[in-house]
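Q: You know discrete backbone vocabularies at least as well as I do. I have my own habits and do not want them to colour yours. No explanation is needed for now; the record alone will do.
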Amino acid sequence: MTAPLRIVIADDQASVREGLVLLLGGLPGIDVVGAAADGEQAVALVAEHRPDAILLDLHMPVLDGIGATRRLAAEHPGVAIVVLTTYADDDSVLEALRASARSYLTKDADRADIARALSAAADGLAVLDPRVPAMLLAAARAPVRAAAAPDGLTGREAEILGLIARGLTNPEIAARLFLSNHTIKTHINRIFAKTGSRDRVAAIGYAHRHGIGEPGT
């Protein structure tokens, strides 16, 4: 008999995490060997159990899914990474794929789709949400930024901070970048945390001090 696919599940929402454990653990041929509430726990569980694949939420505390993907790719390259997120327009997916995630699904995928993606990833194949190719095409067409953003800001976060500094509102930024208002708000919360800004005014001051949002940036 074929050995079961051994997986780790990582999601900071207990209800989602426990639900995935029950759904996937009940499928034949899958053995859920661990469940993590943040990226650090996920890396530790992979080191402990050496699973075939991990189902990894992108947005978690302590160490997010992108950071965890980079760690796992460096420390456990044999473990297939399937990232899971809520929104199809979440550009963090692109960073995760660039960091060596093999597959991507949104959380509205059913358990059969998730199981197939995990199995395919463990075999070295990629399974992408049907909406991802358009995102990848848009990213390929976007201008490449030569300089790294400060304080761990991603390229997208620096771009959004620059638009804030130019006076654009959240709906205006969402329309310009073809993202949802919710995604923009999520990015802005991360920008505030990374830059130590309490509000929009402080973030604009930070942008000006670092030359973000000025012509040519």
Summary: The chain has two domains: 5-134, 143-209. The first helix runs from residue 14 to 25. Strands lie at 5-10, 30-36, 53-57, 80-85, 103-106. The radius of gyration is 18 Å.
